[in-house]
Amino acid sequence: MASPPFPNWLWVWKINSSPRSRHFIWQSLHQKLRTRTLLLTRQIIPDPTCNLCGSAPETTVYVLRNCPSARIHWNSIGIPSSLTSSFDLNLENWLKLNCQSKETHNATYWSVLFPSVCWEIWKSRNSFIFTSANPIHFKPDHTTALAID
C-alpha cells in the first residue's frame, strides 16, 4: 500500500519572517492550532462555535481569515489589491500565496508582514479567550514594526 503524498511545505522554512511566525504558519498548515474544532475532535469541548463571533465553527482558516474579528484586522492593515482574491482560497493556497508574495505594503514586503499579522490575530484571539481582552484592539503600525524587526 502506497503512503499518502507528503505535501511540499518546505517553502514555510524559507519565509522571510521570524522563527516564531514560520513555526506558527507550519502549525496552521498542519491544522494543529488549538481551535475549537480541533478541541471538539479531541472530545475536550462539546461545541466548536467561535468564541469571538458565535456564528460559525472555529477552524484554522476561520480564526485567521474569515471571522469578523480577523476581517477587522485584515481591513485595518490593508490587503494589497492584487492579493484580495487570495482571501477566497483554501487555507494552504492562501498561506502559500501570501507568504511568497513579492508585493510591498507601505515599504514592507507583504511576505514579511502577512505571517506576522496571522500571528497577531491568533494572539488577539487568545487574549480574548483567556483574559477577556477586546480582540478588536489591533494596531497595524505595531504589527508592521514587529514584522520589520
Description:
It is built from seven helices and two strands; from the N terminus they run H-H-H-H-H-E-E-H-H. The N and C termini lie far apart (47 Å). Strands 1-2 form a two-stranded antiparallel ribbon. The chain has one domain (17-148). The relative contact order is 0.14. By secondary structure, it is mostly helical. This is Ribonuclease H protein.
List the helices and strands and how they pair.
Elements: H1 19-29, H2 36-41, H3 60-66, H4 68-77, H5 91-99, E1 104-105, E2 108-109, H6 110-131, H7 140-148
Antiparallel strand pairs: 1-2
Short précis:
This protein is an all-alpha fold. It has 7 helices and 2 strands, in the order αααααββαα. Helix content is 50%, strand content 3%.
Distance between the first and last residues' Cα: 47 Å
| Secondary structure: helix percent | 40-55%
| General shape | globular
- Largest pleated sheet: 2 strands, antiparallel
| Integer average pLDDT | 86
Number of strands: 2
**Can you tell me the number of structural domains?**
1
Give the helices and strands as they follow along the chain: HHHHHEEHH
Radius of gyration, in angstroms, nearest whole number: 15 Å
